Automatic annotation (TrEMBL):
<keyword id="KW-1133">Transmembrane helix</keyword>
<feature type="transmembrane region" description="Helical">
    <location>
        <begin position="464"/>
        <end position="481"/>
    </location>
</feature>
<feature type="transmembrane region" description="Helical">
    <location>
        <begin position="113"/>
        <end position="138"/>
    </location>
</feature>
<protein>
    <submittedName>
        <fullName>Metal-nicotianamine transporter YSL5</fullName>
    </submittedName>
</protein>
<feature type="transmembrane region" description="Helical">
    <location>
        <begin position="502"/>
        <end position="524"/>
    </location>
</feature>
<feature type="transmembrane region" description="Helical">
    <location>
        <begin position="439"/>
        <end position="458"/>
    </location>
</feature>
<feature type="transmembrane region" description="Helical">
    <location>
        <begin position="49"/>
        <end position="67"/>
    </location>
</feature>
<feature type="transmembrane region" description="Helical">
    <location>
        <begin position="158"/>
        <end position="180"/>
    </location>
</feature>
<feature type="transmembrane region" description="Helical">
    <location>
        <begin position="387"/>
        <end position="407"/>
    </location>
</feature>
<keyword id="KW-0472">Membrane</keyword>
<dbReference type="GO" id="GO:0035673">
    <property type="term" value="F:oligopeptide transmembrane transporter activity"/>
</dbReference>
<feature type="transmembrane region" description="Helical">
    <location>
        <begin position="413"/>
        <end position="432"/>
    </location>
</feature>
<comment type="similarity">
    <text>Belongs to the YSL (TC 2.A.67.2) family.</text>
</comment>
<keyword id="KW-0813">Transport</keyword>
<feature type="transmembrane region" description="Helical">
    <location>
        <begin position="224"/>
        <end position="249"/>
    </location>
</feature>
<dbReference type="GO" id="GO:0016020">
    <property type="term" value="C:membrane"/>
</dbReference>
<dbReference type="InterPro" id="IPR045035">
    <property type="entry name" value="YSL-like"/>
</dbReference>
């Protein structure tokens, strides 16, 4: 025992020393790079970088698609993209170096290009709305949300129009904020937490001590990737029918299972729980207990609300009310804070001399640290002309305005024109807000479009479709805008050229416009029940977005008598909880759950919340036992669990398309049911 303790202490000291060295090396890494020559922006864009980016984009698109079609909770994958990009290209360069054909070494700028391309590509899987507004346009979602006799318009998924739609809307947001990169990154010095963290990580990879730790992290990621993939493969053998397999294991008993309380052995959501903050995991579990554990059994809402829209999905409206209440409060709060801080930043900027574009000295540059001087000079060196950004925005907006009415016949060109008039403002607000808070509000801007912009069309004139299309256009503008600024921040700190970052973002977006629809199409064809509540992939937010669009067209009149009252109560409760959290402050509000996270299990159940809390508990215990090791390897382990299980969906889909069915159905039934089955079989 004493030897084991001594070994644990030695391991902990060693890891802490490695982390200290890594931190020191990262601080010195930019100075080391600046002593040599930083590759030109063209040399940062290599064939191997985009080859690796394509492979990682396919993997991450499967991961994001699975998360979008199950719960809609998608953690940040920037660190995973940077780590895997480093591993693949480092392996590539070593193999090439042995053959004596290495053209140029692997730099942190090239690593940044890979990370940017992968996140841009997988980001389309989110902003493309495959788990929300785009799938919400389908007949399958419409049939679950309304009586089939109602003649509402719909548009079923097809590869042709989905790829065309993404190509005409996904690039506009990039041009909308491109002229503002200097103001946001250098003048305002916004943090962009995820981009900054990724930059520190990439810089540390390219130092001696950091490279050693990165290899260990990649090894851990590979182990848990393999475990997660093989675990998914093993589970497949027992899923020959509905409610079969480990995913239907009644962990807390059959009655709890009927109320969605069980552990479904999902490696994905255990990994998500390890990445998400503890408060989010606990909030989701609290929402599940409140809804499926208390409200639904007591109120029996299936019988209480069985008219019209509440006929098939009674729980969804209360969940929407909580999500809208939380989103509305934080949207107003964030926009007010953004405006106030913007005015402060503008006032501060006027009081200082601007950093020159050329190599002339100025008081602002002299007052900066050596690293920041070097970063600013290189960031401003490769300018992207404003005429290019403005011309790119106008041309892409014109193409989109001319094309979208042909894809969605009820949407008029002047409606799209109005959207593009306000789009740059919304894109800037989202990019600025993301820099302050670390959170993108693209979904809330989409919901805002549903509630406002799409009001031009009535139910008989494609009003539901018009609202969902407006939502899609706004999300496809605001989400890439914040992603681009996040990547500019990473590039600023790794000395990557803005031109290489922008080109990488454009190429990654183009990849995503093809890869994401193809990945979704595989899911759509391989799993015929996708989108239904009983499916492995219920796509809950597709129903949420469709329902909001329909309510925006019809108003509240079709709702049952008590449904609107309950929604108002929970909408107000969400605002009140947020208000209490803000009054108490961060230090004293750590125990108060987040209403938006609480609202998700209202219509999904608590099974994924239990998975996430298991992941959170694993990380918590790990941090108590060995905090240095947990901090160093926790994200790598979580990424391995998520990516391995996500990649299993590819062979799983291929088997389903080929008609290969699992050989065994492992089902759990009560003792009484088992006796009846035995009697039936015996007779």
């Amino acid at each position: 025992m004493e030897n084991e303790r001594e070994k644990n202490v030695e391991d902990r000291i060693e890891l802490e020393d490695v982390k200290e060295e890594r931190k020191k090396d990262e601080e010195l890494s930019v100075e080391r790079i600046s002593e040599g020559e930083v590759p030109s922006w063209r040399k940062q864009l290599t064939l191997r970088a985009f080859a690796v980016s394509f492979l990682l984009s396919v993997m991450f698109c499967f991961v994001v698609m699975k998360l979008s079609l199950t719960t809609g909770i998608i953690p940040s994958l920037n660190v995973s993209a940077g780590l895997l990009g480093f591993f693949f290209v480092q392996t590539w360069t070593k193999l090439i170096a042995k053959s004596g054909m290495l053209g140029q070494p692997f730099t942190c700028q090239e690593n940044t290009v890979i990370q940017t391309c992968v996140i841009a590509s997988s980001g389309v899987a989110f902003s493309g709305g495959f788990g929300s507004y785009l799938f919400g346009m389908s007949e399958r979602i419409a049939q679950q949300s309304e009586d089939t006799k109602d003649a509402f318009d719909y548009k079923n998924p097809a590869l042709g129009w989905m790829i065309s739609f993404l190509f005409v809307v996904s690039f506009i947001g990039l041009f909308a904020v491109l002229p503002l990169r200097k103001i946001i990154i250098i003048d305002f010095k916004l943090k962009y937490a995820s981009g900054t963290e990724t930059a520190h990580l990439i810089n540390s990879f390219h130092t001696p001590e950091g490279a050693k730790l990165a290899k260990k992290q990649v090894r851990a990621l590979g182990k848990f990737f393999s475990f997660s993939f093989l675990w998914g493969f093993f589970q497949w053998f027992f899923t020959a029918g509905g409610d079969c397999g480990f995913a239907s294991f009644p962990t807390f008993g059959l009655q709890a299972y009927e109320h969605k309380f069980f552990f479904d052995f999902s490696a994905t959501y255990v990994g998500v729980g390890m990445i998400c903050p503890h408060i989010i995991n606990v909030s989701v579990l609290v929402g599940g207990i409140l809804s499926w554990g208390i409200m639904w059994p007591l109120l029996k809402l299936e019988k209480f609300l069985k008219e019209n829209l509440c006929k098939k999905i009674p729980q969804i409206f209360i969940g929407i009310a909580m999500i809208l209440g939380d989103g509305s409060y934080n949207f107003v709060k964030a926009r007010a804070g953004t405006l106030a801080r913007l005015l402060i930043k503008l006032h501060e900027t006027k009081a200082k001399s601007q950093i020159p574009v050329k190599n002339h000295s100025s008081p602002s540059i002299k007052s900066q640290s050596y690293d920041n001087q070097r970063r600013s000079q290189l960031f401003l060196k490769d300018q992207i002309p404003k005429w290019f950004a403005i011309g790119g925005y106008l041309s892409t907006a014109a193409i989109s305005t001319a094309t979208l009415p042909h894809i969605f016949h009820h949407h008029k060109w002047y409606q799209i024109t109005v959207i593009y008039i306000f789009a740059p403002t919304l894109a800037f607000c989202n990019a600025f807000g993301c820099g302050l808070t670390g959170w993108s509000s693209a979904s809330m801007y989409g919901i805002l479009a549903i509630l406002t912009i799409g009001a031009w069309g009535g139910a008989s004139h494609g009003g539901v479709m018009a609202r969902l299309v407006a939502c899609g256009v706004i999300m496809s503008i605001t989400a890439p805008a914040s992603d681009l600024m996040q990547d500019f921040k990473t590039g600023y700190m790794t000395l990557a050229s803005p031109r290489s970052i922008f080109v990488s973002q454009v190429i990654g977006t183009a990849m995503g416009c093809v890869i994401s629809p193809c990945v979704f199409w595989i899911f759509y064809k391989a799993f015929p029940d996708i989108g239904y509540a009983t499916s492995e992939y219920p796509a809950p937010f597709a129903t949420v977005y469709y329902t909001m669009a329909r309510l925006g067209v019809e108003g509240f009149s079709p709702l049952p008598k008590h449904c609107l009252k309950l929604c108002c109560v929970f909408f107000a409760a969400a605002i009140l909880i947020n208000l209490i959290r803000d009054i108490l402050g961060k230090k004293r509000s750590w125990f108060i759950p987040l209403p938006m996270a609480m609202g998700i299990p209202f219509f999904l159940g608590s099974y994924f919340a239990i998975d996430m809390c298991v992941g959170s508990l694993i990380l918590y215990i790990w941090q108590k036992v060995n905090k240095a090791k947990a901090d160093a390897f926790g994200p790598a382990v979580a990424s391995g669990l998520i990516c391995g299980d996500g990649m299993w969906t590819l062979p799983n889909s291929i088997l389903a398309l080929a008609g290969v069915r699992p050989p065994i159905c492992m089902k759990f039934i009560s003792r009484a049911t088992n006796s009846r089955v035995d009697k039936f079989l015996g007779s």
